[in-house]
Amino acid sequence: MTATSYCHVATRMRATALPLFLCLLCTGGCAVGPDFVRPQTAVPDAWIGATTMPTTQPSMAESDLQRWWAAFSDAKLTSLIEQAFSSNLDLRLATSRIRQARASRGIAVSGIGPTVDASGSFRRSQASSGGGDMKSPTVNNYQVGFDAGWEIDIFGGVRRGIEAADAEVQASVENRRDVLVTLAAEVARNYVDLRTYQQRLAIARKNLEAQKHSAELTRKRFEGGFVSGLDVANADALVATTEAAIPLLESSARQTIYTLSVLLDREPGALVPELSEAAGIPAAPPAAPVGVPSDLLRRRPDIRLAEADIHAATAQIGVAATDLFPKVAINGSVGWQAANSGDLFNPLSRFWSLGPSVTWNLFQSGRTLSNIEVQKALQEQSILTYRKTVLTAIQEVENALIASVKEQERRRSLQAAVAANRKAADLATQLYTEGHTDFLNVLSAQRSLYSSEDALAQSTQVMAVELIALYKALGGGWEEVQAVAGGQER
Predict the structure, then answer these.
(1) Whole-angstrom distance, CA of residue 145 vs CA of residue 473
(2) What is the CATH number of the domain that holds 51?
């Protein structure tokens, strides 16, 4: 064959190779496996309990839900939540997981381009002389070069991997947001618990003083011969019973301060000086932006996280399915090899190679098909988890709504009971002092007054805690902190 013929053949090969290469690139625009479809979940049009809760106004501003703790009008509560947002260990751990997910995505993206490796070696060798008299010469071999490879993503395995990595990044972001929601609620609930213990301590000490006064009065009447020793014993027993409640309340209050300190990534006793002074229980605001059930699908981070998990699981099916198809790669190498180091980079010492390769796992005893079924099962599980998460979210809101409604009714009754018991205790003490009634009436009235006042304080706590639970169930609070280390959350 003449040189001209060789030229024609080479030209035709280049003309054929270019369309083939473009075809491979176009084919690379497709990806095997199912595409992600946002799950459709039926939710109620309205809340069951919202219509019976006058304190709930769906028309309230969305911003009220983003910073819901401000509705309690307690500067200390706001300060604690803001400190927790900047220092809590669980939140910092969730932030670190975002960086990990983003780095993992970078690994997945690296598979879309070519790889280049550099190598160098020196080998000194001597072949066997075969038992003859002549010694084989010693040979040096110097070699440096570059190897390159590019696996063309024809069936979209790499792109499906990037899609899965993107979904996992989003899942880590939503997990951090869920930590924010939980953290704000935990700080608020513990703060309300602390103020409740402090108020119950104040109630116990106030009633204890009144009971000690009655006991002293009874003792004087006993010494004057007006009452029996039974009245004195009953009075002392009531005093001792009330005194016994105080250490438990003090212990609970201190332990709650320890909990708040740890939530802020501080030593357990760090907040004792700051929070030991008693303050009132934060009053529950008169309204909360409940909205409609469908709002949960876009607001609650755990639901958004479950959706991202479905997306990742769907993409992994495509990654597994690409093992059914051949893999096409273009490999090449260039380098220099010489016996002497001075000749290493001589043009005559250069070698190179370039060409495509195809590998296809034709038989793996069903391993690839089984892996696809595994990924499909994982996708099914993520869909079921999503459905369960949505139902749980709706249940949590409904629970908070009905609890708030019923606690309002209970609180009104307790307020009436406190007023009546206070009046009864005053009248019983007055009549007893004048000798018109026995001490059992005083004892019963004081016991009932303490019990109703303590129950009213706990009802105030429950009102606040149920509202906190409602805000948490609605997914409020995660917009407050968007920035994370190394960039923005989104």
Answers:
(1) 61
(2) 1.20.1600.10
